[in-house]
């Protein structure tokens, strides 16, 4: 990629896409192409074909997807498989037809078997059954990896897949039902603290409702009260969290420095499993995460574990040897990142 290359970021307003946009701008890339979801619905084959025909991007970051936490994945199963397969089929196929020089496809570590040996290496893909709560999403992501791999092999394209761990950062989704655990707990614990301080105005403003009674009733549904916060599941599952700006930096690093062909020449004779894990290689339990957020937010109440909610995979720690060997390592440690995202939330929640 050179600084004038025409680069399309699909999903530029999302958690990862917005961080990729900032990262590229900061590095001096000046020909970046973006479209909002409203301007271009990537599930629409004809519109995506027209877009590529007119714009002819040279590089593509595919960070648009239907994304959500464990309950969203488990509830909207059809949407997660349909939207994700449509988006990636359209973008990857049109990238091939219009001679895109390089494409980066974002998968997820949920592609690995539910009971994979830890930490999970790239070659564990398709070696056992998946976690059921996010199986439709994971299958869409696996088909995206295999699509990139197949186009590379049959058509000589240069499409690279990366498998990020759980991400968090600015522009994350803080919805109490549909979000991932880290933003959900930041918001729930913050709101519980506001309730304990009897700051009715701040609670109403955060939830954008017209009365404190409505706000309290809504929060009760999610187990948020002035003296306790509900945590889904047992608190025992472990998760690995990567700051979204580190994730974006890894994506740009890979786009700048790697080619699909390098990935099986460097001692790897197998053309399959050329995807790259992106993570920190460190994880913590959900209980420990909740305690950390509680400390940072300054909430004094209790954490109550609701075991009727799913735990999901008990552990999905990435093996980041491949990424580290390429010369990239994360910078932001979890406690620093949680402090940053809490401050970001305080400045952006109304
Ligand atoms: N967040 C995480 O923890 C993880 C994310 N990933 C992957 O990283 C990538 C980015 O995720 P993340 O940034 O968190 O997701 P976000 O939900 O924050 O952003 C997704 C973006 O895609 C856009 N989008 C969704 N559907 C369409 C559509 N039909 N047409 C056009 N645009 C669409 C959204 O626009 P709009 O909001 O307007 O719909 C949004 O800008 C995804 O591939 C995801 O699977 C992988 C592992 C973990
Ligand atoms: C990134 C990843 O995201 C999803 O997988 P997940 O890691 O299981 O997602 P999660 O962040 O929602 O939950 C992590 C853990 O945390 C627990 N938990 C506690 N309390 C809350 C809570 O309040 N909200 C949420 N969401 N989870 C909670 C929750 O029960 C679970 O044990 C995939 O569907 C898949 O899409 C994917 O790739």
TrEMBL record:
This is GDP-L-fucose synthase. GO terms for molecular function: GDP-L-fucose synthase activity; isomerase activity; NADP+ binding. Keywords: Isomerase, Multifunctional enzyme, NADP, Oxidoreductase. Pathway: Nucleotide-sugar biosynthesis; GDP-L-fucose biosynthesis via de novo pathway; GDP-L-fucose from GDP-alpha-D-mannose: step 2/2. It comes from the Bacteria. Residues 7-259 form the NAD-dependent epimerase/dehydratase domain. The record marks 108, 110 as: Important for catalytic activity. Its EC number is 1.1.1.271. Gene3D superfamilies: NAD(P)-binding Rossmann-like Domain (3.40.50.720), UDP-galactose 4-epimerase, domain 1 (3.90.25.10). It catalyses: GDP-beta-L-fucose + NADP(+) = GDP-4-dehydro-alpha-D-rhamnose + NADPH + H(+). PANTHER family: GDP-L-FUCOSE SYNTHASE. Substrate binds at residues 188, 232, 239, 311. One of its GO terms (biological process) is 'de novo' GDP-L-fucose biosynthetic process. SUPFAM superfamilies: NAD(P)-binding Rossmann-fold domains. Pfam families: Epimerase. Catalyzes the two-step NADP-dependent conversion of GDP-4-dehydro-6-deoxy-D-mannose to GDP-fucose, involving an epimerase and a reductase reaction. InterPro entries: Epimerase_deHydtase (IPR001509), GDP_fucose/colitose_synth (IPR028614), NAD(P)-bd_dom_sf (IPR036291). Belongs to the NAD(P)-dependent epimerase/dehydratase family. Fucose synthase subfamily. NADP(+) binds at residues 11-17, 106-109, 141, 164-167, 180. It is an enzyme of class 1 (oxidoreductase). The active site is at 137 (proton donor/acceptor).
């Amino acid at each position: 990629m050179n600084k004038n290359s025409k680069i399309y970021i699909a999903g530029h307003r999302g958690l990862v896409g917005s961080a990729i946009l900032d990262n590229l701008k900061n590095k001096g890339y000046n020909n970046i192409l973006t479209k909002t979801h409203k301007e271009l619905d990537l599930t629409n084959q004809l519109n995506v074909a027209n877009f590529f025909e007119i714009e002819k991007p040279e590089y593509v970051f595919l960070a648009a997807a239907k994304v959500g936490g464990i309950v969203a994945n488990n509830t909207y199963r059809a949407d997660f498989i349909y939207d994700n397969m449509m988006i990636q089929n359209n973008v990857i196929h049109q990238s091939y037809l219009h001679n895109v020089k390089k494409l980066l496809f974002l998968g997820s570590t949920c592609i690995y078997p539910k009971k994979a040996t830890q930490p999970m290496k790239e070659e564990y893909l398709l070696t056992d059954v998946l976690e059921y709560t996010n199986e439709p999403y994971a299958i869409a992501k696996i088909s995206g990896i295999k699509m990139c791999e197949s186009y590379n092999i049959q058509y000589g394209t240069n499409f690279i897949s990366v498998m990020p761990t759980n991400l968090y950062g600015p522009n994350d989704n803080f919805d109490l039902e549909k979000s991932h655990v880290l933003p959900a707990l930041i918001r729930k614990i913050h709101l519980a603290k506001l309730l304990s301080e009897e700051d009715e105005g701040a609670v109403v403003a955060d939830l954008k409702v017209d009365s404190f009674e409505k706000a309290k009733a809504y929060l009760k549904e999610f187990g948020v009260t002035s003296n306790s916060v509900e945590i889904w599941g047992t608190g025992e599952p472990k998760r690995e969290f990567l700051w979204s700006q580190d994730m974006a930096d890894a994506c740009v690093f890979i786009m700048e420095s790697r080619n699909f062909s390098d990935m099986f020449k460097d001692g790897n004779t197998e053309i399959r499993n050329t995807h790259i894990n992106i993570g920190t290689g460190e994880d913590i339990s959900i209980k420990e995460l909740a305690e950390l957020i509680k400390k940072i937010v300054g909430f004094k109440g209790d954490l109550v574990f609701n075991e009727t909610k799913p735990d999901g995979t008990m552990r999905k720690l990435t093996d980041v040897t491949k990424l580290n060997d390429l010369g990239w390592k994360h910078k932001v440690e979890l406690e620093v990142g949680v402090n940053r995202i809490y401050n970001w939330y305080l400045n952006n929640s109304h």
